[in-house]
Amino acid sequence: MERRTDLAVEERELLGEDIKGIDYTSEEVEGLPIERLHIMTKRAAQLLKKPMGHYVTVELPPLTDSIRDTDSRLQALSQEIRRLLPVNGLVLVAGLGNVEITPDALGPKTASKVLATRHIRGEVARSTGLDRLRAVAVVNTGVTGQTGIETGELLQGVIKNIRPSAMIAVDALASRRLERLGCTVQISDTGISPGAGVGNHRVRIDAETMGIPVIAIGVPTVVDAVTLAFDLLEIDDEKESVELSRSVSPQGRSMVVTPKEVDLLIDRAAHLISLSVNMALQTDIDTEDLLDLL
Q1: For residues 116 and 137, is the Cβ–Cβ distance under 8 A?
Q2: ∠ CA(53), CA(56), CA(61), 5° rounding?
Q3: Would you call 148 helix, strand, or coil by DSSP?
Q4: Cβ(70)–Cβ(234) under 8 Å?
Q5: Rounded to whole angstroms, how far apart are CA atoms 189 and 223?
Q6: CA-CA distance, 180 to 164, in Å (whole number)?
Q7: Which end of the chain has fewer surrounding CB within 10 Å, N or C?
Q8: 0.85 cut: is pTM over it?
Q9: How many helices (H) and strands (E) does the chain have?
């Protein structure tokens, strides 16, 4: 039975640390543990079931704890996001997910707090002192069940018309461990597969399908029920794994688990990521001035 996870570092943990074609480093930045994983070969990508590219995993104190607008988490996350972005050009920020389903609302809630500036230009920008703002466009995609449009199709249409230099896609993720829920942020340059965390795979949103670099940012908000059982029972033996998967009812195999305080987790995560994205994009604006604009 596959242990479902969207986190590259967890796939590495499952396979073991000695994997050829992967460059792995870890360090502490602003007091936060950061793991950097670079998948360099197709063989390694197949083993980890992740596309080739860079994955940055930042471990945080629980997001359900209070955060200050200018704390170390903002500095660390904004630096990691900025490293993956082109220096100049319009950036499209896309919030993926369903705002009406709390564990899936991270993308829409984050996008709603990102400063859209593409329309601020010319004399208006100069007279208001906003001429130093980088051009940013923001879109909430919804989900196919609401719009009848594939998320990838919608984004391709937007990109064709406004021609951004890069896109930041924000979405909720799945982890294989309870302890990572609301305590981890994954940032990658490999794009994202909407719905993959709950087994609802859609067309990938990445550089190949969109035609521009796609930076994906996500926070784990759910654990697959069977995967959670493996984790809680600490089952690694293949025979025991097969027996456990057979004992789970068909209904149980399709369930996902989320923390009871998920509404607070989503609000805090959206607040943190949106501020980090704003800081990464608007490098010519002081943090305090930027906060006053939001």
Answers
A1: yes
A2: 160
A3: coil
A4: no
A5: 23
A6: 33
A7: C
A8: yes
A9: 13, 9
